Amino acid sequence: MSALLFGSISTVADTSELQRRAFNEAFEAHGLGWNWSRDDYRTMLGNNGGEDRIAQYAKDRNEDVDAVAVHQTKSSIFQELLSSAGVSARPGVVETIRRAQQDGVRLGFVTTTSADNISALLTALAPEVSADTFDLILDSSSVTAPKPDPSVYRHALEQLGEDAAHVVAVEDNAGGVSAATDAGLTCIAFPNENTVGADFAAAETTVESLHPDEVVALLRS
Hints:
Order of helices and strands: EHHHHHHEHEHEHEEH
CATH superfamily of the largest domain: HAD superfamily/HAD-like
Helix content: 40-55%
Distance between the termini: 13 Å
Radius of gyration: 17 Å
């Protein structure tokens, strides 16, 4: 057997700018007076974890902020935006999923975001991509350490009963690539609009769109 694992929300639909908008609207809702520009946001995307980004930003500014509460507001706003923004699957994603299903490749959505974020995304993308698409869905409740820690990928391998040599991960940020490769997986870097230009040297390849034949070739290599 073999498996193809999508490692974050933005490997399926590019929601990076919706995420940034949700952060800024949450900051306004909490009266913080913060506004993350695209340049600001891009410097923060080397690692995963929105709550940690908020906490670090507050620390750098010597401000006392309830990062948990702000992040909860951000997540609620993001989920609302997903339901109204008309998001769509990224280039080649649907075709690659269909090819994998045709070839008997198992599919996973292996993230360390919240279950509610995943549910909101898959509701917005249905019926092309839905919860039924995946053999395994992991979220922030699945492991104690978020990416770039590789534990979520190791957990995925255990749950699927797969050897890392037969699994390919798709990731959109450097922290996700590190998590996948540290778990022994082959990784395709699929940058979103705010991670283009990041260091993806650890990935097997970096692409602008997914091509089913190329993904299948990596699974069989």
